[in-house]
Specification:
Layout: H1 2-15, E1 39-40, E2 45-47, H2 50-62, E3 67-73, H3 82-95, H4 98-103, E4 104-114, E5 117-126, H5 130-134, E6 137-140, H6 142-154, E7 159-165, H7 171-184, E8 194-200, E9 215-222, H8 227-243, H9 254-265, E10 269-270, H10 283-289, E11 291-292, H11 294-308, E12 311-319, E13 322-330, E14 336-339, H12 351-356, E15 359-360
Helix pairs in contact: 2-3, 6-7, 8-10, 9-11, 10-11
């Protein structure tokens, strides 16, 4: 280990890669070169001030080392004594340095005085494997976080660990991004996963939001069904779409989105549950099993639009005060319209028409659709009531006076 450390340090010095945040350039560290970094003295790291001592401990963490040695030469303590400085550097590495806060269980230093210098032996215990550390993905900005979450959801991954720069948000912010990413990936939206978010380092005591800077964000996902089963469902759904490819060659105009609207309504009937009492809130339920609630119909229409290259999004709002889902589709000419495939007259509606019929949604988050309503009332996702139990059909407002189901017809890609 000492010989390897010597070679690595010699190479780093040759290339001039000393750094305050890290002594080597990793995909999860920020490198800020300076001239006064710790130096190699054979098989140990030499530090002459506190910053170099802190950098040395961080270097050990970056390398995943369980043991490292630092020589403090010509060292003047910044605190009461050398041991206090050593403790402070180790505490910073395990509590405030993002990778240390995420990966390190504890750091145990031992300090001894040898003739003219102090020798600090640093023992590090980890609570993450090297594979977990290597899987950390560096991102900057909300869009990049959301894209990584989409990729994780598409494969039904159990976790995503991101190194996020300029991050000052909290756990609820990430949970909302997971929700958005879920509706962005309708082919894999086969049941909203439970989400657990941990941010490293955590919030300072007494603070409600984290200060700006680098954070490692760990997102753990627990799905309602076994991921292997979900993968098979996804493959079957995609296969079903492929079998109906001839019906999906449409343009992003009124005629094109009408074709998709009619295709979905001729494939799936509106229903709250299947014959066994299970939820039917997925595109799979609509396009494979042939029945779905408003969420499942909206996801199915979103998937059809994505398959044909038409811009579309799922809207989560309320209808007469109850949770409801539909779509906003944007045409090639830039105009946007609402589509609610649960109802026969739910095609190409404008904002004013939808609001007049009891729909509410946060209009700040979505494109405007034609004529605007007189009132600017909106409903935020946090304001949407979530019933403790799934209501029976009689408790759900039925669009346009229709019954529990709309049209009982064949499944997409099959003869009726």
């Amino acid at each position: 280990m000492k010989r390897v450390l010597t070679v690595i340090l010699a190479l780093a010095l040759t290339l001039g890669l000393g750094g305050c945040a890290s002594m080597l350039d990793h995909n999860y560290t920020v490198v800020q070169p300076h001239e006064d970094g710790p130096t190699s003295d054979g098989d140990v790291i030499t530090a002459e001030n506190y910053q170099q001592l802190e950098d040395a401990v961080i270097y050990f963490v970056d390398q995943g080392m369980s043991y490292g040695v630092v020589h403090l030469s010509n060292y003047t303590p910044t605190q009461s004594d050398v041991e206090a400085d050593v403790d402070a550097a180790c505490l910073y590495a395990v509590q405030e340095y993002p990778l240390g806060a995420y990966a390190v269980s504890y750091i145990k230093p031992q300090t001894s005085y040898i003739v003219s210098y102090y020798e600090v032996s640093v023992y590090i215990s980890y609570r993450r494997t090297q594979d977990q550390v290597n899987s950390i993905v560096s991102v900057t900005g909300t869009s990049a976080i959301r894209e990584e979450l989409r990729d994780t959801l598409r494969t039904f991954g159990a976790e995503a660990v991101l190194r996020v720069t300029y991050f000052n948000e909290d756990e609820e912010f990430i949970q909302e991004l997971v929700r958005q990413a879920y509706y962005d990936t309708p082919e894999a939206a086969l049941g909203m996963p439970e989400v657990t978010v941990s941010i490293y380092p955590g919030l300072p005591e007494g603070e409600e939001t984290a200060p700006g800077g680098v954070r490692i964000v760990e997102i753990q996902l627990s799905y309602p069904e076994d991921p292997e089963l979900l993968q098979k469902k996804k493959e079957k759904l995609v296969s079903q779409l492929s079998s109906a490819a001839a019906h999906l060659e449409v343009k992003a105009d009124q005629a094109g989105i009408r074709t998709l609207f009619d295709l979905l309504r001729n494939t799936a009937q509106y229903s709250l549950r299947d014959s066994e009492g299970h939820k039917v809130n997925t595109a799979y339920a609509a396009l494979v099993d042939g029945r779905a609630d408003s969420e499942g119909m909206a996801l199915a229409y979103q998937l059809l639009c994505q398959y044909t290259g038409i811009e579309c999004t799922v809207v989560s709002g309320t209808l007469d005060g109850a949770p409801w889902y539909w779509n906003i589709v944007t045409l090639a000419d830039g105009e946007s319209r609402h589509v609610d495939a649960t109802r026969v007259d739910g095609f190409a509606l404008q904002d004013a028409e939808l609001a007049a019929q009891g729909y509410q949604w946060n209009r700040e988050d979505f494109p405007s659709c034609g004529i605007q309503p007189a009132s600017e009332e909106t409903v935020l996702p946090s304001d949407i009531p979530v019933p403790s139990e799934v209501p029976v059909p009689s408790e759900i407002p039925t669009p346009s006076g229709e019954g529990e189901t709309l049209m009982s017809v064949g499944v997409l890609g099959k003869e009726k």
